[in-house]
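Appendix B, record 7
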Amino acid sequence: MWFDLGLTALAAAESTASTASFVGKQGFGLPVEVVLALFGTLAGSTLLVRRRWPLVPVAAALLTIPFQAGYLLLMVGLYTLGAYRPEGPARRFAERRAMSLLCVWAIVETTVVSALTITTQQADALRNGVPEYALLLLSVLVAVGITVAPTMLGLYIGARRRLWETLSDRAEGLETELALLAEQAAERARRARMEERTRIAREMHDVVAHRVSLMVVHAGALERVVHKDAERAAESAKLMGDIGRQALDELRQILGVLRTVETDAVSGEAAAAVLAVPSGDGPGLADVPRLVDESRAAGLRVRLTVGGARRALSAETERTAYRVVQEALTNVLKHAAGAEAEVVVAYVPGGVALAVANTCPEAAGPDAAAGAARRLPSGGNGLVGMRERVTALGGTFVAAATEAGGFRVEARMTAAPGTR
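Structure tokens (predicted):
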């Protein structure tokens, strides 16, 4: 601000003094001298607005040059017009072509004014034998110096400033983009961890709920017959041992990947990969008959029907179908003791359809009361887990009570054929 005020004061003083001197030499009289001096002062004062309207000082300088004044104003105005890009209609005058035209205009105007006043202002030089063309050439060189030099300097400073602004904007944009990418990576890692935790929870729920349910059922049977039928008690105890060993084997497969790791030293994707449940071979539709036999051994009256041409499905589809049947039978054992159940596996074009239904336990006979006394607790996550598994493969899942008081679970999955 102080720099601009100083330039304005110098330009105003130079313009005022030069115009007053010019008028005094021409002999126009005091009133004209005063008016033109005020005009020179006003023209020099236009430097106050040079940063906002850089074309104004240039125009004022071009108006004062005929009075052999405003040269400092012209130099500062041309520099400012090149260094600062104006807005609005004056913007086109800041282009290089327009700047060149302004320089040519100023050179011609300055040269013409010098040529017209050579005989009056350079009389001493002419008397000393200096030719007029030398004075004219000197005027041209001075005009070029006071116009071209500040214009080129202004254009250079303006280009450098705009380049710096562009680089700064680009750096800020890159920083913003990197921050956004980091946030997206953190969000993907968080979602991956949540998905893996949910997947592990589903696997552990399916294994523990089914096997422990069978063990509790056999334990109840063992309690009732241990004093009456030693052979049947021994058979129930053997079944409990087998089921317990199967549960331990499946739990080891899941818990084996939950070893202690330095998760802070790896990325979110790497941590999710470490925590991932192995997605290799596992139980599939071929194991459903064994699953039904286990439920029968636990006292559940269940029928299995398999329809359609057996075809190879993807390992994930096979495992999901098995888990749906397993969880549905577990729910029957938990909540409908004494009821009859039916499992239907139908191979359809491009996939498989499943249905597990049970009758109303109150209408299933005298075993219903005994079953209600040993009903197992439930966390309410079984149906949610089945639905998540099926929908994750693009299938459909329906679970609802039947009109007869029973319950029915249906699932349909389509998946690309694969080898297990």
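Remarks on this record: Confidence is low (pLDDT under 50) at residues 260-280, 363-374. The two ends are 80 Å apart (CA to CA).
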